[in-house]
Amino acid sequence: MIRVQQLLFEVEGSYYGHPYFVTGNALFNAIARRADAATRRSLHVSTGVFVPGEYGTYPDRHSQSGRAGKMGMSLQPVEAYEDLFLFRDAAHRWLKESRPRDAHNTHDVESHGGRLAFASSKRFGRPAEMRANKRTMSWFVHCYVHADEEGVVPLDADVVDGVRVGGARNYGLGELSLADSQVVDVGALDFSAVNDASTHRIELLSPYVLQSECPGADRQSVPWWWDNDENLRRRDTRFVDGVDVYDVATVDHGQVVGYAGDDPVSTAVNGVLRVGTHSRFGFGEFRVRSASSDRVPARAKAGAVRADGGDV
Amino acid sequence: MTRTADEDLDDVETVAEPMVAVYRHDLHKMRGRSHEAAVDVYADVQVNEPVPLGADRDAALLSRLRGEPEETVSNHKSPYRLSLLAGSTPRPDDPGPSEHGLGFQDLVKSSDPEELHARWVTSDIAGAYHESMFVPYTSLKHHTLLAAALLDNYRAGHGFDDLYLVATNPGDDDVTDVSSALSAESVVPHRTVLWTPEIALYVTVEPGDRPAARLGDTPAMSFADTWSRLSGHPLDVGGEERWRMLDAELRRIRSWSTALAFIEDFVGLHGDAA
């Protein structure tokens, strides 16, 4: 049994922190200071992906189908491997088409004395000459945890509810309240879509560490099972350990490479549990996809329509 | 090579030279008129002509859904674009389309394709309008520039699936007005679809060693996907928080013209020149 606990938080205050996601390190430290020694010793925490609390429709490659109401405000059933990633891609392709998706999926930026922070909610006001409409959308954060030791996961709600992340926490910023939690056995999921594909791609969902200035951290090369001819985009980031800040060189998340290994299902599981240096704190998460499936749903549909000679 | 245009669209002939016609094809949207009610001649030049080789349709598919449009934002019965960044129209104090006569003429009057491109890529007026009332966060300016970039590439014999998004920093180029655009190295006629002091974007078949990513097999609302696959960072995301924030937001935006307008708005508000 590979037990993973998914956590969905509602963002209660402005967030002044890492803009791509809440780092796994920030979430780990926020949880660890309220948890017991076994948890501090053995907990692994993913990055926290920002999720708009909005209406959605299950993507084609999900075990469920149809509409799901305000999808972003609760965790959805996980039966197949693909279901794990519903909220793990910032493009949030599940957002309903009949709503202004890009407006829902971009953060409002607030300036706090020149420091730029993300607002915790988004109000859909209208220009002055328009009729008033003050609909409010809340932001959520999705992460998942697993542990090396038995009995650590699932975490109790009171350990995770109300954690604070990002900067200016003493001023009330970055508070997360627990909205939903569920435990998933990754080993029991349906991997048939991965199994059935003859060739695969790997999509990096969090940065992969090449080099870290942290004491004892291993320098790593690009894994042999990544098949890639083109340049991989690098990004330098930092890892904070108490008062110490270490430079970390990574392959940036969002990059897509071919898969040159021969055991895609095991690789897929490893991608959920993450690989490489600092993987305990969110680095090295990836998804395995069939090379013939397109990440962009409309493109997959368009190809099918044209192949049928239909009208687009 | 695949081309996404239908056969009947391949046959479109325009009175104006095609690379001129593409910059004049959506004038009716700025004038608040439907396609059916559009005039043929404005300021003594041919306008609102269909764009050859399906470039207009393909550009539209980059930024909005195919099929019958649905209203996505209620209560926005206005030709003005809604800014994702500001949550309002960029020109709330604007006196209205009728006052824009002179500005509109500058965007269509020239018969020199390169001058028209330079006018559009530096235009504030065009960026104040959306592509469609149904999707008011889109940008007419960037739709037109994308249509021109596709048409220019198609006319050179390239298919959609040959194309790359290329992203660079314009360096020391003076990013200001039409004359600077006409002389700047960072402006490639028709291929430059965004030109700001911090970042320039191109749609081209020649990425060279610049940060680039393929556009994919067919046009779709794929900006976030394409941006996050770029082979390098055009912005200083290692150094400055504001560029990390912009990068993070661009990994979320799926509509191309919405994303390009978002970059312009963001650079205008948070860039060095702001």
Helix-residue proportion of chain A: 10-25%
Give the amount of beta strand of chain A, in percent: 25-35%
Q: What proportion of the residues of chain B is helical, as a percent range? A: 25-40%
* Cα Rg of chain A: 20 Å
Number of domains of chain B: 1
Distance between the termini of chain B: 43 Å
Order of helices and strands of chain A: EHHEEHEEEEHEHEEEEEEHEH
Low-confidence stretches of chain B: 1-7
Short synopsis of the structure:
The complex is a heterodimer of chains A (312) and B (274). Chain A is of the alpha+beta class.
Describe this entry's structure for a reader:
- The complex is a heterodimer of chains A (312) and B (274).
- With 312 residues, chain A is of the alpha+beta class.
- Chain A has 2 domains: 3-188, no CATH class; 198-290, no CATH class.
- Chain A has helices spanning 24-32, 37-42, 101-104, 157-160, 192-196, 264-273, 297-307; strands at 3-11, 43-45, 49-52, 109-112, 115-118, 121-124, 135-147, 176-185, 200-204, 208-212, 226-227, 234-241, 244-251, 256-259, 286-290.
- In chain A, strand 4 and strand 5 form a beta hairpin.
- The longest helix of chain A is centred in the C-terminal third of the chain and has 11 residues, at 297-307.
- The radius of gyration of chain A is 20 Å and the shape is globular.
- Chain A starts with a strand and ends in a 5-residue tail after the last helix.
- Chain B has one domain.
- Chain B contains 11 helices and 6 strands.
- Chain B has helices spanning 7-10, 18-24, 27-30, 55-63, 101-108, 113-121, 140-155, 178-183, 223-228, 241-250, 256-270; strands at residues 41-42, 45-46, 164-168, 192-195, 200-204, 212-214.
- In chain B, the strands form 2 sheets. Chain B has a 4-stranded antiparallel β-sheet with strand order 4-5-3-6.
- With 274 residues, chain B is of the alpha+beta class.
- In chain B, strand 1 and strand 2 (45-46) form a beta hairpin.
- The interface between A and B is large, with 51 and 58 residues.
